[in-house]
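Moderator note: this is an archived Q&A kept for reference. The question asked for a predicted structure of one protein chain; the sequence and the answer are reproduced below.
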Amino acid sequence: MWNEDVLSSGPRVATAGIDLIDDALARQDVDVAPTRWQPPSASGLAPVLSSIALCDGVRTANRTALERLTGARPHLVGVRPASEAVGLEPGTFLHAGPPIDWAGASGPLRGALTGAALLEGVASSPDDATARFARGEFRLEPCHHRAAVGPMAGVVSPSMPMLVIENEAGGGKAFCTINEGLGKVLRYGAFSAEVIDRLRWIERVLAPVLGDVLRAAGPLDLYAMAGEALQMGDECHNRNRAGTSLFLRAIGPHLIEAPRSSSDAAECFRFITGNDHFFLNLMMPAAKAAADTARDIEGSTMVVAMARNGTEFGIQLSGTGNEWFTGPSGVPQGLLFPGYGPEDANPDIGDSTITETVGVGGFAMASAPAIVKFVGGSSDLALDSSRRMYAITLGEHPLFRLPALDFRGTPVGIDVALVVRRNTLPVVNTGIAGREAGVGQVGAGLVDPPARCFENALARFAERHASLLRT
């Protein structure tokens, strides 16, 4: 239909992919509407992408996966030692990321494993721990293989208390250790006496107090807290100040009334209120419980796990079972603490990318412009990061809203086909661990996952679902 305004108002030109054209038109005072477009990251997968785009079975499977992911309602229900929570046997240690052995482990992972061996009393010294791990006397296993997640090195040993999360919509449980705080901590590979003493205090005092509190308070709705925290400036990965405050508010009266000494209650209160990252270890297993509801849906191209072990970055898809697709972890780029340089930074590490997997963290940076002071960048970067993620996701989260984007739901449901088709990688913000064992945290920043993970996952998906894609 002819629009008479065209001649009077002038043309508006949509462009895609080439900045030179945008600039040339702008110099001629033409109204330009740039469109983000890039060729697929792996041109050899173009036939697969075409088949997926035309496949009703994939669309149906992804719709089911997304409904399960966004329909989850994780609640905190208790605290149990890892030996009970995930059946962790003596001499077995869990770690973040895809499978890895001692020989391939990075400095911070080795440091955390050393500290855990000292904590459990199965090694007499750091050198003894190193020698025993090198001889293969201990077993290493990913947290994800036991329905658990761990920040940074993510190391779990049998005596460590674990938070127990249940999904009240559909069932299923997930687990995570209790956050130690910042600085010299086990998850960043530190294993000094102060680190071990803090872990023993968590086991001896904090975990029992939290157990009493939860028995009195009943299940705590973690997604309700996360949704509110997003309205208060958190993104629920690297900024958890609001989430921690909301959690402390929920347990406060029960903490005061707990059948423990007032000094223990006060010590627990001081520890939590002085640890803005406390909520991270609640959000991570909540996200794990949600993501696991979307596993094993035949024909779904949705990502259900992203994790890093300090050497490799790995992903899992709903439609390819428990198979890992890996590539080399990148070194985060951002702000380093005084006294440290780029050479001190370890490649990306941790299970905390489970938050991005369910639509928060880097995907919700628009709600947390203050995060850029921690990871580097600008407020515009925070907004743009969230906007870009809508291009590679299957929908928007009904509970997680972004005030800065007119309360639009966060982008959720990473589609491996869209990642490859749009040549756009998931946004990840993260802490930076020191490369050497025992150093601890040296900064925070942003990191790109390796494209190879997504390309290999898509190729495997096509191989496994060849008959579906032919229909």
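Archived answer notes: The chain has three domains: 5-35, 43-70+294-470, 72-285.
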